[in-house]
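Lab notebook, design round three. We kept the backbone fixed and only want residue identities now. Task for the bench partner: fill in a sequence for the structure below.
Input structure tokens:
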């Protein structure tokens, strides 16, 4: 047995013909939007400026929010007020997939890195994964900091590296170690092991 969170009722027209209509329980709509954004009641309360108890009562249909409260809800949840009266769309799988067999990525060689670009068949990706063999052995091999848009994640697959970032002391990373950082912050990676290190990089667009 399934229960629709948006229950239906019937109304009669001028000829007394009944037809079903869907009612909107605004509280459950607020809860659905909050959960879509992975927010707790406390987090949503801070964003909207409403007490946790108030939000809970709204979600459980114990009180009806005033227009001023709806404005706070819309502003804090970063939605338009009409969205409080429209069912949130369920996320749907797009079916996007790209498999890159070992060694089948697109090579891209630079003086400091030997990149292998992965998942190259997909356009408009939200992130770019690639493996890189680090040829650089000193900071001076770069000449300056590397900077670019987005955030970046690196994972050491082979060897050891030294990870330089503009606002932090250099850090040595070994196999299995990783780092996540703002790519607009100056950064470079050099190999410190006997063999050139291999790392996996994932950069957001």
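Proposed sequence:
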């Amino acid at each position: 047995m399934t229960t629709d969170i948006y229950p239906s009722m019937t109304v009669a027209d001028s000829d007394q013909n009944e037809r079903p209509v869907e009612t909107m329980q605004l509280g459950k709509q607020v809860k659905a939007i909050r959960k879509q954004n992975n927010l707790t009641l406390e987090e949503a309360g801070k964003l909207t400026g409403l007490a946790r108890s108030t939000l809970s009562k709204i979600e459980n249909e114990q009180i009806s929010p005033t227009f001023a409260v709806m404005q706070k809800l819309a502003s804090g949840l970063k939605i338009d007020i009409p969205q409080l009266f429209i069912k949130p769309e369920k996320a749907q799988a797009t079916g996007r997939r790209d498999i890159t067999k070992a060694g089948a990525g697109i090579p891209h060689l630079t003086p400091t890195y030997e990149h292998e670009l992965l998942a190259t068949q997909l356009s408009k990706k939200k992130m770019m994964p690639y493996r890189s063999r680090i040829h650089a052995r000193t900071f001076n091999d770069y000449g300056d900091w590397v900077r670019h848009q987005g955030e970046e994640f690196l994972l050491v697959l082979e060897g050891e590296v030294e990870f330089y970032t503009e606002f932090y002391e250099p850090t040595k990373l070994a196999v299995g170690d990783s780092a996540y950082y703002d790519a607009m912050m100056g950064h470079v990676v050099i190999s410190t092991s006997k063999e050139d290190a291999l790392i996996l990089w994932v950069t957001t667009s």
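Keep this in mind before ordering anything: The radius of gyration is 26 Å.
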